[in-house]
Amino acid sequence: MIFIIGGSYQGKTDFAVNRFGLKTDEITEGSAPYDKLTSAKCIRHFEDFVSSAAGRNEDPLELTGKLLISNPDVIIIMTEIGCGIIPIEKSERIYRELVGKTGCMIAGHAEKVIRITCGIPAVIKGETI
Amino acid sequence: MFILISGGCKNGKSAIAEKIICSGNPGRFYIATMQPFGNEAEIAIKRHREMRAGTHFKTIEKYTDIGEIDLPDKCSVLLECIGNLCANEMFSAGCSSPDEKILRDIKKLTEKTEILVAVTSQVGGDGIIYPKETMKYVESLGRLNSALANTADIVIEAVFGIPVILKGELPECLY
C-alpha cells in the first residue's frame, strides 16, 4: 500500500490522481461508512476516519489495522496535524494524538510513504518514484 | 556528538531517540523536563517510562536550568523535551529569553557528553494567532530549534515514525 501525507492543501489528492491515474469515483472520503473503505482504491482525509471512529468510542488504531488487512493495496491520503500548539480542548488533543499514532501505524505498514509539500513529492520511505 | 530530533505530536520522536542512545555505550541518562501537572502529563510520563523499561537509563527530572546537572564525563544523554523545557523556563521560571538560556545550557551538556540526543517539538505549524504570551512561546521555541539545529551534527525529523534526515547523515542504527 501507498501512504501520501502532508499539510492541508499541499496538493496530495492532485498528486495521487495524476501519479496513479485515479478517477474521481475511485477516491473515497475517510468519513465514508467502513464497508465502502474496505473496497476503496484510494481513501483521502483519513484523519476524518480517525475522528469519526473516536467519536463512536471505537479504537481507530484497531479499525485501521483491520482495514489494512482487508484492503492491502489501498492508497491512503492523510493530513499531518501535529505541528502546532497543544489544543486547549481535550477532545482536540486526543484527536491530534490519535492521528499521529494512526499515521505511525500506516507508515509502518506502507511499502511507500510520499510526503507532499507545495505539490512536490518527497519519498520518505521505499523506492523513489 | 549532538543530535536534534524534531517532529509533530505522536510521530515517534522518542522511539528514534532511544534507538540511537541504546545503540551506543552504557552509562545512559534520561533528562526528563515534563512537570507532572495533571492526569494527562502523568499518563504521558508513564507511557515514556514503559518505553524505556529495560533500557538501563538513569532518569534525572529537571524542569529548568539543565546546565547545572552533574554528569559523568563521556556519558550518553537523552534530553526530552525541549518544548516543555522552553515553556518551563518562560512560564515557571519567568525567563525573558529562554532560547538564549537553553542554548547555553545545552552547550554545557554537550561539553560533558559523548552523545546528546535532544527531542524537541514543532509548535508553529497550525497558523493560528494565539494570545501574546503563547505567540512569544511559539517564537522562542522556533528560534531555539533553529539555533540548536545550527549547532547539531545531525538533525532528524520524525514523520509518522519515519526518520527523515534534515542535516548530517542518518545514524546506522536507523537504517
How would you characterize the overall build of this protein?
The complex is a heterodimer of chains A (129) and B (175). Chain A is 42% helix and 22% strand. Chain A is of the alpha/beta class. Chain A has a single domain, classed as P-loop containing nucleotide triphosphate hydrolases (Rossmann fold, 3-Layer(aba) Sandwich), CATH 3.40.50. Chain A has a 6-stranded mixed β-sheet, with helices on both faces. Chain A is globular, with a radius of gyration of 14 Å. The two termini of chain A are 14 Å apart. The relative contact order of chain A is 0.23. Chain B has one domain (2-167): P-loop containing nucleotide triphosphate hydrolases (Rossmann fold), CATH 3.40.50. Chain B is 41% helix and 23% strand. Chain B has a 7-stranded mixed β-sheet, with helices on both faces. In chain B, helix 4 (98-112) packs parallel to helix 5 (132-151). The interface between A and B is medium-sized, with 27 and 23 residues.
CATH architecture of chain A: 3-Layer(aba) Sandwich
The number of distinct helices of chain B, counting runs of at least 4 residues, comes to 5
Sequence stretches where pLDDT stays below 50 over 5 or more residues of chain B: none
What's the helical proportion of residues of chain A? 40-55%
Total beta strand runs of chain A: 6
Q: Count every helix of chain A, treating DSSP H or I runs of 4 or more residues as helices.
A: 5
**Overall morphology of chain A:** globular
Brief descriptors of the model:
heterodimer; A: 129 residues; alpha/beta; Rossmann fold; 5 helices; globular; B: 175 residues; 7-stranded mixed beta sheet; 7 strands
Write the layout of secondary structure elements.
The complex is a heterodimer of chains A (129) and B (175).
Chain A: E1 2-6, H1 12-20, E2 27-29, H2 34-37, E3 42-44, H3 46-55, H4 60-70, E4 75-79, H5 90-109, E5 112-117, E6 120-125
Parallel strand pairs in A: 1-4, 1-5, 2-3, 3-4
Antiparallel strand pairs in A: 5-6
Chain B: E1 2-7, H1 13-22, E2 28-32, H2 38-52, E3 57-61, E4 75-80, H3 82-92, H4 98-112, E5 113-119, H5 132-151, E6 154-159, E7 162-167
Parallel strand pairs in B: 1-5, 1-6, 2-3, 2-4, 4-5
Antiparallel strand pairs in B: 6-7
